[in-house]
Design brief:
This protein has 335 residues and is an alpha+beta fold. It is built from 9 helices and 4 strands; from the N terminus they run αααβαβαββαααα. Among the domains are: 2-121 and 149-169, Beta-Lactamase (2-Layer Sandwich); 222-314, Signal transduction histidine kinase, dimerisation/phosphotransfer (DHp) domain (Helix Hairpins).
Length: 335
């Protein structure tokens, strides 16, 4: 499937592969950035909760028991809830809670028992409000479907007088934020990669096309100039090998042509002598047949020499109208 979608040209494939690599790296970078941002947000909110929990624990230990309820009420907020209990609300330490435990102990300045648990809180889907207009219900469902389940932090601090200070807080993962300012660098990078790929493809494809045209000219005739060595090193090596092949073919054909011309020239003398001897024979059937054979051999030798002279002269190839040529041949044959 991917092979059918890829462009057929070298430049198109190079551009497609570079853009695909850029999109993959940008996607992985975006995922890593989102993950690190979520961790940073969780760490900031968790450390803020840990700092408040440590300060509240110090206040509770310094205040008389009658003021504990007032201190907890003053410390409560819509996002962070404080309570006292005989047992810790955090039953165990999670991996992400160890930093909060260390930060809380650092503020308290002792090695008391502290537990921190961060876990995902799965909430049931909210019910649609009865008085929502029918036209807004699809939009409301879409908003609810795209919401993120919150993370719950449970922090339990052992008090010096006995009992536990339990802290609960919720925070949501920040969603992806797309804006023209965020998309502009990606578009600029895509444009830069496309420009680089286009320039690189032209640098590679141009000498390859010249090599293809040189091979086409070589197929039509050997009298062609060597190709210029341009482009990357690999393309230059291919062009250099093509020039060497062309030079060897030219020398091979030239040597064979000279050898054939020499043989044909050497055959003219014995053929002339044979023709003179045939002329001295009496006129009969055998002498007539022998004379025809000698004349045929003489014609073959002359044609071979004519071919050698034409190859040596190196006449330029000319375009011929094949239809007009055949029409003239038919007309000459009919005449």
């Amino acid at each position: 499937m991917i092979r059918h979608l890829m462009p057929r040209s070298v430049g198109g494939q190079l551009l497609a592969l570079l853009l695909l690599a850029l999109l993959v790296t940008q996607g992985l970078g975006l995922m890593l950035l989102t993950y690190e941002r979520n961790r940073a947000v969780r760490a900031a909110l968790g450390l803020e909760a840990a700092s408040r929990a440590a300060n509240v624990a110090l206040l509770l230990e310094a205040a008389p028991p009658g003021m504990h309820a007032a201190i907890l009420g003053a410390a409560d907020s819509p996002l962070v809830q404080f309570s006292l209990g005989a047992v810790p609300a955090a039953t165990h330490d999670s991996g992400e809670g160890r930093q909060l435990v260390a930060e809380t102990r650092n503020i308290l300045g002792d090695g008391r028992e502290i537990r921190a648990d961060i876990h995902r809180l799965v909430l049931p889907p909210p019910e649609l409000v009865a008085d929502i207009p029918e036209a807004m219900r699809p939009m409301h469902r879409a908003m609810m479907a795209g919401r993120n389940d919150p993370l719950e932090l449970v922090l339990s601090v052992r008090l010096s007088g006995g009992g536990w200070l339990n802290v609960r807080t919720l925070f949501h993962r920040p969603g992806l934020q797309w804006s023209p300012q965020a998309l502009l660098p990606l578009l600029l990078m895509l444009a830069a990669v496309a420009l680089v790929a286009w320039v690189t493809a032209r640098r590679i494809v141009r000498p390859m096309r010249a090599l293809a045209r040189g091979a086409e000219r070589l197929g039509r005739g050997l009298d062609t100039a060597p190709l210029a060595l341009t482009g990357p090193t690999e393309v230059q090596e291919a062009t250099r090998a093509f020039n060497r092949m062309q030079d060897r073919l030219t020398r091979f054909v030239a040597e064979r042509t000279r050898m054939l011309a020499a043989l044909s020239h050497d055959l003219r003398s014995p053929l002339t002598a044979m023709r003179l001897r045939v002329e001295l024979l009496a006129e009969d059937e055998d002498s007539t047949r022998l004379r025809a054979l000698v004349e045929e051999m003489q014609a073959m030798v002359e044609q071979t020499l004519d071919f050698a002279r034409a190859a040596a002269q190196g006449e330029a190839v000319q375009a011929v109208d094949l239809v007009a040529l055949l029409r003239d041949l038919v007309a000459d044959a009919g005449a």
